[in-house]
Amino acid sequence: MSELAHSPADADDPLPPRGFYSVSLNLVGRPCVVIGPSDDREASEKVAALEDVGAVVRWITDPASLRDEDVSDAFFVISTPQDAALSARLRALADAHRFLLCTIDQPRYGFVAMQAIVRAGPVKIGISTGGVAPRVGKILKAALERVLDAKFVRFVEAIAAKKRQNRRELADDALARRAAMILAADGFALDATVTYPAWFEDDERAAGREAGA
Predict the structure, then answer these.
(1) pLDDT digits over 57-92, tens only?
(2) Which residues, other chains included, contact 9 with Cβ-Cβ below 8 Å and sequence gap of 6+?
(3) pLDDT at 127 exceeding the cut of 50
(4) Of 10, 210, 1, whose CA–CA distance to 109 is shortest?
């Protein structure tokens, strides 16, 4: 595991200069630790998400009681308190014990920036702002969740059923199977509109930028 390009103490430039590399983790059977109070929704959501993908999760609800050995054998650690001293300590432990670390809203200390996940039946969409604008990621997630509704889920499931049917009926003709699936998806489209805050629109006009440029 390589270290970040900037040290945790570099508060003027807390993010890697080229952002984070987006990956998905197979955490089945892996020991993971979540640090955050029991009434912290963020911590609760992270515990549920880790358990959902088969991780072995330990939830430390009292960050003040954290011992070094609580994380020394972990594969992935997520800390939700925005406590610089705790995050710096975890970063030192991550460097020493080589575990993946996410410090929520304090990306200068961690190796991992969390993605906002949109789930619609079998479809999953990961949204990442690289730790720069998590609120924007949440807004994008909410918008996609409104669009990818129950009807969309039924559509995807119907496409999946057609794919299974084509595998049976066109088992010996790969080109025909491909053509059938292209035809099945023909007509599906997703349109999006974006609205920006007034202060940003004012800045854009002051800079002389055209709409959509």
Answers:
(1) 999 999 999 999 999 999 999 999 999 999 999 999
(2) 88
(3) yes
(4) 10
- The predicted model gives 160-173 an average pLDDT of 94
CA 113, CA 22: separation in Å to the nearest integer? 9
Instruction: Specify whether the backbone of 97 is left (phi greater than 0), alpha (psi in -120 to 50) or beta.
Output: alpha
Fold agreement (31-114, 115-148): no
Spatial separation of the C-alpha atoms in residues 59 and 164, rounded to whole Å: 41
CATH topology of domain 31-114: Rossmann fold (3.40.50)
- Residue 111 — φ and ψ, nearest 5°? -100, -15
Domain 115-148 has CATH 3.30.160: yes
What the block records as the tokens of 65 is 């009681």
User: How many other C-beta atoms can be found within 10 angstroms of the C-beta atom of residue 145?
Assistant: 14
